[in-house]
Design a protein that fits this description.
By secondary structure, the protein is an alpha/beta fold. Helix content is about 40%, strand content about 20%.
């Protein structure tokens, strides 16, 4: 068995199916995607996206990366295996009058697209958590034009994600024995957390001139409820962590988060947290 196959098999039980992503699509669109726009614009600048270029968003969710690309004047195709996520993207694009956009339901492991089609193929917090990253990256490279770019945005290590540390600290108030995240192997969300690994995955996919930039996602919250909504609607894995908590326990977590965020808040009453992110751009 290859390393990639072994990794995929080991982590198969952690993969949320399309139905699970569709179940959180409304919350993702309301609470998560709007907070991704600033990071998306930073990443698109690194990729040098220009008006009129063809842009593919892989594992797009409701458009956290593809909507900013469309606003910059790119011709955008957003793909995701969740129909509800793609419907949300289409509604957003329609409401904003972004006419040169398309949303299609598609599995990133087998893109139903011709070779050498897009100037830029990107994925923000998408390919980082699919079960066979090597295959997904290979597909992104296949559909990118020669001389085009592949853009990957992925979280850094969990200990450098403030939102996660806040949430786990609050969780341990009601569940002191909560063990935290496994590290051997880590959850799929963190398989690309090491920039050396991220760079090598892109090289292995056949890309060159790989550039990896460390930056941060900086979501802003005015209350523990806002952070709760952002976390639980950001990934179906959250339900596995909080699914058995009582309503009183959930209320306690939100109250603890309220206190933590108040200590961080500025004069407007809003708190910014900083989460380590790597932006990788590579050329075909």
């Amino acid at each position: 068995m290859s390393t990639t196959q072994d990794q995929a098999s080991t982590n198969e039980h952690t993969v949320a199916p399309p139905e699970a992503w569709s179940a959180i699509a409304e919350g993702y669109d309301l609470y998560v995607a709007p907070q991704e726009a600033e990071l998306a614009n930073e990443a698109l600048r690194h990729a040098g996206l220009r008006p009129g270029e063809r842009f593919l968003d892989v594992a797009a969710g409701s458009g956290g990366l593809s909507l900013p690309a469309a606003r910059l004047g790119a011709r955008v195709l957003a793909t995701d295996w969740s129909p509800a996520m793609i419907n949300r993207f289409r509604e957003r694009a329609l409401n904003e009058g972004l006419t040169d956009t398309e949303g299609r339901v598609m599995d990133c492991h087998a893109l139903d697209l011709p070779d050498d089609t897009f100037d830029v193929a990107g994925s923000q917090f998408g390919v980082m958590l699919v079960p066979d990253q090597a295959r997904a990256l290979s597909e992104m490279v296949r559909v990118t034009k020669p001389g085009g770019r592949v853009l990957i945005i992925a979280y850094g290590p969990p200990e450098e994600l403030e939102f996660l540390q806040f949430f786990f600290s609050a969780l341990k108030v009601v569940a002191p024995d909560f063990p935290g995240l496994p590290d051997d192997p880590p959850p799929l969300e963190f398989q690309l957390a090491d920039p050396v690994v991220l760079r090598q995955r892109l090289v292995d996919a056949g890309l060159k001139d790989v550039q990896v930039v460390r930056t941060a996602e900086r979501p802003v919250f005015a209350s523990g409820q806002e952070m709760w909504d952002w976390v639980v609607n950001g990934n179906p894995i959250a339900d596995a962590v909080i699914g058995e908590l009582t309503e009183n326990q959930r209320l306690t977590i939100r109250r603890v988060l309220d206190g933590m965020l108040r200590e961080r808040a500025d004069a407007s009453g809003r708190a910014t947290v900083s989460d380590a992110v790597h932006i990788a751009v590579a050329w075909k």
